[in-house]
Amino acid sequence: MGRDALVVGINTYSYGALGKLEAPARDAEAIAQQLEASPNPFRVERLPGIKDKANDSLKVGKKTPVSLRQLKKALVRYFKPRGETYADTVLFYYSGHGLFDDLTGKSYLATSDVNPDEEKWGFALRDLAELLRESPVKRQIIWLDCCHSGGLVAVKDANPGEQAGYSRCFVAASQEIESAYELANGDYGVLTEGLLQGLNPQRLPGQWIDTLSLCAFVNQYLKDVRQTYPQRALFLNVGEPIDLTRCEGNGTVAEKLPELQPDNCPYRALNAFDFTPEDVEVFFGRRVLTDELLGQIYQHHFLAVLGPSGSGKSSVVRAGLLYELQQGKRRSGTETWQILPIIKPGESPLRSLAGVFIPETFRFKKKGETFLNSSVAELRVTGAAALVEMIEEEECEQPVVLVVDQFEEIFTLCRGSEEKEQERKQFLNCLFGAVDALAGKLRLVVTMRADFLGKCLQQTTGNLAERMTSCRVDIRPLSDRELREVISQPATQVGLKVSTELQERILNEVKAAPGSLPLLEYALTEWWQAWHKEYQEDKTIAPELTLEHYRAVGGVAGALEKQANQVYQQFAGDAKKQGLVERIFVELVQPGVDTEDTRKRVWKRELVSDIHPEVLVDDVLAVLVQSRLVVRDGAKVGKGEQVETVIDLAHEALIRHWSKLQTWLEKHRQYLPVIRQLRGEAKRYVAEQGNKSKHFLRGVKLEEAQDCLAKYGNLGYFDAQTQEFISLSKKTWIEEETEKEKQILEALYMTAEFQWSQRNRRGSLISITKAGARVQQLRDSRPEVKPDNCQKVVEKLQETLYNRIKEKNCLECHLEGHSNRVNAIAYSPDGTILASASSDKTVKLWNAQNASLLATLTGHSGSVRAIVYSPYGSTFASISGYDVKLWNVRDRSLLTTLTGHGGLVNTIAYSPNGTILASASHDKKVKLWNTQDGSLLTTLTGHSDSVNAIAYSPDGIILASASWDKTVKLWNTQDDSLLATLTGHGSGVNAIAYSPNGTILASASHDKTVKLWNTQDESLLTTLTGHGDSVNAIAYSPNGTILASASHDRTVKLWNAQDGSLLATLTGHSDSVNAIAYSPDGATLASASHDQTVKLWNVKLQFDLNLDSAMAYARDWLRNYLTHNPNVSASDKELLEI
After folding, report:
1. DSSP-assigned beta bridge partners for residue 949
2. What SS3 string covers 28-89?
3. Are 847 and 854 in contact (CB under 8 A)?
4. How far is CA 1032 from CA 374, 711, 884, 1045, in A?
5. Confidence (pLDDT) at 238
6. Do the beta carbons of residue 770 and residue 748 sit within 8 Å?
């Protein structure tokens, strides 16, 4: 342990071109003596060290050479020693020649034996960097007074600062390709003179001189002498400052606590810390994280700081990163970087971005609004080029730092319309286009809640997904030590203490609660308030926060809740004010969509309404601001010279931890987004100069608006403009709907009349039933829409509807018996048996004629995922887990089990001649088996994810496979070669099927669609849409005229196989439909479901290939089913009355 120093000064060089030096030995000896004189002295080794006979001590030799081997051995001994014993602090000082190799770009510390002509350059700074990085020494101090010494600071691997507990100080006399100088009128090098003056303990009497204060002094010293000596020193400080020296005799004197400042609260409640001296003075606990951010922003042009709500993202960026950049104490030169005003995206991120560059003289005048609008227009049109121009007009040669706080607002507030989606993309393109174009001049920092990372990863604009992955720092929870700093150190700054008992209680309450920093800071503020109140009554009380204050306020979790409830109760007895308080807090929250709720800023004018006049709003806001629950910003650009006020939550912790606000939000969650959208629609309507009617609400949107108005109209959420907009929308909608319905009914009525005259009874029934259904719908749900031809439709319906139903019921029966979901079904080739496979580990065989259960096969140990009959019906195959089983149809005995897949087997298929059985697996492979002896013939590989389905072409020449990798692959069964890969689905492909004539291949996907492909040239013919969820299975009818599809949306749809039109939708299952199969004669369609049943549908009906007719038939079938099926319950038959 202890403090060691290796001090090197080399005057003597054998390489003639370098020449001998005079200052290095003097430099090194002076530094050595200063370090040894510290009250906490360093153990100094001098290199080269010689005996000073006059003083009986060692000193740095002026003529003695130092070899590379000596220097390297000494450095390794101090920074990477053998064994477990080493100093906790090691300082390395070097003065001498520095070399730079132009060919390799490497910098070196030149030892006496260097000879660049023989490629002997000395000790490479990159090797020193690696040594430091691997060193167990946790406090490292490196001072290099030589040419090209800045190469060490440029090597990022030297930085151990991201490791907890490591601190370092690097000081280099010059840039990597720059020379260092000796003072013309002194004994020392320029840097060493600065170090010696900075280390003088008399400079700061009674105070420790540490690495930070030393670097600040040296930096200023070099600026003062720079005109004569134009070297640019570099320094880098990471971790905690390291004490170096102080006045003799004061080293063990206890630090004097600051004088008590009883009226100065050291805590910031719910406010974020900013990079102001007042806030930084009481900002603690984030030194390691700040160092990491500094390292990242110095090396990268973009930095994303992510963490949960309440983790302190904004504070560490402002009071940590920006403050340190501004000060320039930890990385030389950053004090010259220009920090632009911090922005939050808001509802219009381009407007927020443009506002950064408004000239100060315009900011609150009409010119400011004009300038802002012009800048926004430029950003929209020219994008990143406009932003680059704005930044370059700042005329700053050093990097410019732009911070976008609460970056998640591009998703939470900039949304709801195509215009907003477009603005989000433009904003991202502006930011990242400028970052790339300016090549390091712009450093962009964003803070964002971690739960929005998924949305970022879905974005392609600005390469956001990749940037968020590669340039991100995640906020880590505070350690116990850091939490203690947060709790006690701010109090220390104003002469207060926090009792040990209180610290322990807080730690136990906070450390297991993510995102609790704002709660803690707020509670500390309340405890200070409680102490301050006591102090005002009795000036003799101890300057200490104790458990009594903790108990009085309600602990960490209870402080905010208690205060917020007390503020709300101040308005007890005034229902209007309490209603306004509720409305203000609800308005200040943006409900999350697949994410947590976030805060939302609002203009004060948006809170003013007929229900809540401005004087009332001002009164309530005054109380909320005084109580530190909301904040009010005044300096915002308005029209003319008017300055508007914006209101914001003090912190999102209110959303998470105030139960009353959570209750309000749940009460309003359904309608709050609708209300806000309506306000925006009303604004666009008023601003429209052309066809205003295009903005009117219609249909569901109008219904929602009317519902919202009825519920919230008297609560102040709707201004007069929005109410008038809703009223005009309703009037226009009624007029439009009445005319439209009149035309539709007339067309249906005339069609029914004509069909009746042509003795087309069925067609006439369909047409008039459709018309009758519309009349009923109008009467029951839209009574305000009253076409004048409704009555004759009703009369015609009465004449034909109830006595013309003759078709056989569509749903014949359903099979029950499985105790878990049914995964697969298959008809035997002769159509006499229907087999069903289930997750209950069984296969059931049913009589296809009378639906009776023939047998239950129980040979599987897990869920049975698929079943298929061989083409000639002698065997059938089933799969469970990783295995495929072959069964004898006649006696239902197990013939063999095929094993070999490395994952779950998903599906199986026989070749048309029955000689091969193909199996597809989660292991991304398709295997082909000999059905005679069960041997493995070949394995097809090529998919990058689970293979979900396989199908042979009718001629057996091609095997198609479908995968979760979104593709369908076609394989030549003659040589197992890959013929083609079909792409186009937006998600995994679940099922495939060839048409009976082999000309079309259908594929069904998780993306809710079915695609039809031409098998001759693999081109896409059409895409069938209509399902509301993943399509799980497809099957062609035996004659190829109908394609059936089954979906997770609980329905089976029947499509015209020729033109893709929808013929019918079969409903009845109560859960996902997993499989479908046509009987060989095509008369029955079987469907299997998660609801543990198999349903049999009569599909012999001859469809009129027209979408409207198909829908009418579906209703007719349902009525016949309800009327004639003996299994229908009495309650189901009540559906006939609808």
Report:
1. 962
2. HHHHHHHHHCCCCCCEEEEECEEEECCCCEEEECCCCCCCHHHHHHHHHHHHCCCCCCCCCE
3. yes
4. 53, 42, 21, 8
5. 85
6. yes
What is the CA 810 to chain-centroid distance, rounded? 48
Dist CA 562 CA 654 (whole Å): 11
Residue boundaries of the structural domains of the chain: 3-245, 286-474, 480-564, 811-1100+1110-1137
Residue 162 clears pLDDT 70, i.e. is over it:
no
| Alpha carbons 882 and 905: distance in angstroms, whole number | 5
Q: How far is CA 100 from the centre of its chain?
A: 45
The pLDDT, as a whole number, for residue 19 is 78
Name the packing angle between helices 699-712 and 672-687 (round to 10°): 110
> How confident is residue 849, by pLDDT bands cut at 50, 70 and 90?
confident
**Contact between 918 and 908 (Cβ < 8 Å):** yes
Tell me which residue has tokens 């009250």: 39
Strand partners, 234: 172
Calpha distance 34→201 (Å, rounded)? 9
Q: Which conformational region is residue 1119 in: left (phi greater than 0), alpha (psi within -120 to 50 degrees), or beta?
A: alpha
Alpha helices in 570-697 (DSSP H): 575-587, 614-626, 653-657, 659-668, 672-687
Only one residue has tokens 């930084």, namely 280
Q: Is 3-245 assigned to CATH 3.40.50.1460?
A: yes
Residues 904, 873 contacting (CB under 8 angstroms) = no
**Closest C-alpha to 461, from 418, 427, 502, 498:** 427
Where on the phi/psi map is residue 675: left (φ > 0), alpha (ψ -120 to 50), or beta? Answer: alpha
Question: Would the CA dihedral through 1039, 1041, 1047, 1052 be positive or negative?
Answer: negative
Give the predicted TM-score (pTM) of the model. Answer: 0.55
Give the separation between CA 761 and CA 754, rounded to whole angstroms.
Answer: 10
- Contact residues for 38 (Cβ-Cβ < 8 A; gap 6+): 201, 244, 245, 246, 251
Q: In 3D, which of 940, 936, 826 has the Cα closest to residue 877?
A: 826
Q: What is the largest CA-CA distance in the chain?
A: 134
Whether residue 796 has pLDDT greater than 70:
no
Positions of E strands within 709-862: 811-816, 822-827, 833-838, 843-847, 853-857
The region of weakest confidence among 251-255, 957-961, 1089-1093 is: 251-255
Q: Rounded to the nearest 5°, which phi and psi values hold at 955?
A: -90, 0
Contact between 424 and 414 under an 8 Å Cβ cutoff? The reply is yes
Please name the fold of domain 286-474: Rossmann fold (3.40.50)
Same fold? 3-245, 811-1100+1110-1137:
no
pLDDT band at 1119 (very low <50, low <70, confident <90, very high): low
Tell me, what's the pLDDT at 160? Answer: 45
Report yes or no: 978 and 942 within 8 Å, Cβ to Cβ: yes
What's the CA gap between 1095 and 811, in Å, rounded? Answer: 8
Task: Name which of 665, 664, 587, 584 is nearest 624 in CA terms.
Answer: 584
The CA–CA distances, whole Å, from 142 to 79, 149, 335, 989 equal 11, 11, 22, 61
Transcribe 570-600 into DSSP letters: TTTT-HHHHHHHHHHHHHTEE--SSS--EE-
Residue 420 and residue 606 in contact, taking contact as beta carbons nearer than 8 Å: no
Strands 916-921 and 905-910: antiparallel
- Residues 646-671: what's their mean pLDDT? 83
Cβ atoms of residues 847 and 832 within 8 Å:
yes
CA distance 890 to 872: 12
Ramachandran angles phi, psi of 123, nearest 5°: -95, 115
How far is CA 447 from each of CA 20, 306, 577, 988, 1104, rounded to the nearest angstrom? 54, 6, 35, 34, 60
Q: Give me the sign of the Cα torsion angle 982, 986, 990, 994.
A: negative
CATH class of 811-1100+1110-1137: mainly beta
